[in-house]
Specification:
Distance between the termini: 27 Å
CATH superfamily of the largest domain: Dihydrodipicolinate Reductase, domain 2
CATH topology of the largest domain: Dihydrodipicolinate Reductase, domain 2
Radius of gyration: 20 Å
Number of strands: 15
Strand content: 25-35%
Structural class: alpha/beta
CATH class of the largest domain: Alpha Beta
Length: about 375
């Protein structure tokens, strides 16, 4: 669809990444932000520094100027504590075919989730949550290898998403520290449990791929700090159990450098290891089997490649609206339900059952 019209709300780092990804498909892109300085920064600094030059075909506009326009895809790339309000406004005004919301979906209190689901169903909009690691090349390859070779009966699953957030602030030099943004507030969707919730989400995805079901119970510890006006968790450690009885662990933090973004799926006949940025500009996938029929592949990539699979997938959904998606709203909501249970467990000191009652399953 070369005539696809895209509106990106939020001219920060993620908005620029997705604008570039959409322009790589020759889609018509409009970027908007409540702050005129953010739009100027996009045109003069962020986009040219990342991609070599500003793309003059990207339209920059104030939000009020777009109130009567329709778009095929709307991307919400603003702070998590604004997602539900903006999503409701977009769905009420002129609902797009697809609404892509950056992760995490919302704040840990899940406020607005039920209303979002009801409104999306009423308007017929496909809502996606942008856990893009589900659609990278080495993740798609992992799904194929598990289906073809497998590792036998699954015995445990471990995921790490540990990365010092200095890189985030480096990409947002106009911020002086955590207190300047939602990142410094767990309650607003920041901290390790929110910002690095890719760890929970990729654990859930591989559990789904191998038939282990949802996470049903969480026992968690958080290292929560108050510093310089901010209040956030810098380390989150989860012990989880799935519907099948599988025990596993998930660790997320904002203090580790160099970063560790890693998952290992153990089975009776071997294991699968998945890594992001295992080498310079490379992801790694390794499947080891006791019978020697294993495989290993290094996948060369650039930073834009982290979003390419996501954009390509959206193009497929626009062409085939009934196609299933690993980014569907229910998967992003399931991650939020685990986050809510994690906070309750850490703050009460007990094991907590994950409450999925806030998720409205789509009708057949």
């Amino acid at each position: 669809m070369t005539d696809t019209r895209v509106k990106i709300i939020g001219a920060g780092s993620i908005g620029n990444h997705l604008a570039h990804g959409c322009r790589s498909r020759d889609w018509s892109v409009t970027m908007t932000d409540i702050d005129p300085a953010a739009l100027a920064r996009t045109r003069e600094e962020i986009y040219p520094s990342r991609y070599g030059a500003w793309d003059a075909d990207i339209r920059l506009a104030a939000r009020d100027a777009l109130a009567t326009e329709s778009f095929d895809l709307v991307v919400i790339g603003t702070p998590p504590d604004t997602h539900m309000r903006i999503a409701a406004a977009e769905l009420t005004r002129r609902a797009p075919k697809i609404l892509l919301i950056e992760k995490p979906l919302c704040t840990p209190d899940l406020d607005g989730c039920a209303e979002l689901q009801q409104l999306a169903a009423k308007q017929g909009t496909r809502v996606l949550v942008a856990y893009n690691h589900r659609l990278t090349e080495h993740t798609r390859l992992a799904a194929a290898w598990l289906e073809e070779l497998g590792v036998g009966e699954i015995t445990t699953l471990r995921a790490l998403f540990r990365e010092h957030w200095g890189g985030i602030f480096g990409a947002h030099p106009w911020l002086s520290g955590p207190a300047d943004t939602y990142l410094g507030f767990t309650s607003r969707g920041g901290g390790a449990i929110g910002e690095h919730s890719h760890g929970i989400n990729i654990w859930q995805y591989f559990a789904q791929l191998t038939g282990q079901g949802r996470i049903t119970e969480v026992s968690a510890e958080l290292d929560e700090v108050e510093w310089n006006g901010a209040a956030y968790d810098r380390i989150a450690q989860l012990s989880v159990r799935s519907e099948s009885g599988l025990l596993g662990t998930i660790v997320q933090d904002v203090v580790t450098r160099p970063a560790e973004k890693w998952l290992r799926l153990e089975g009776q006949d071997g294991y699968l290891e998945w890594q992001v940025n295992a080498g310079s500009g490379q992801d790694l996938l390794r499947l080891v089997r006791d019978d020697g029929k294993g495989r290993e592949q290094w996948v060369a990539k650039t930073r834009p490649d982290d979003f390419r699979g996501e954009i390509d997938h959206i193009a497929q959904l626009l062409a085939e609206p009934a196609m299933p998606s690993p980014l569907d709203l229910q998967s992003g909501l399931a991650t939020m339900c685990v986050i809510a249970a994690t906070l309750e467990s850490a703050r009460t000191g007990r094991r907590v059952a994950v409450d999925y009652r806030s998720i409205v399953e789509p009708s057949a």
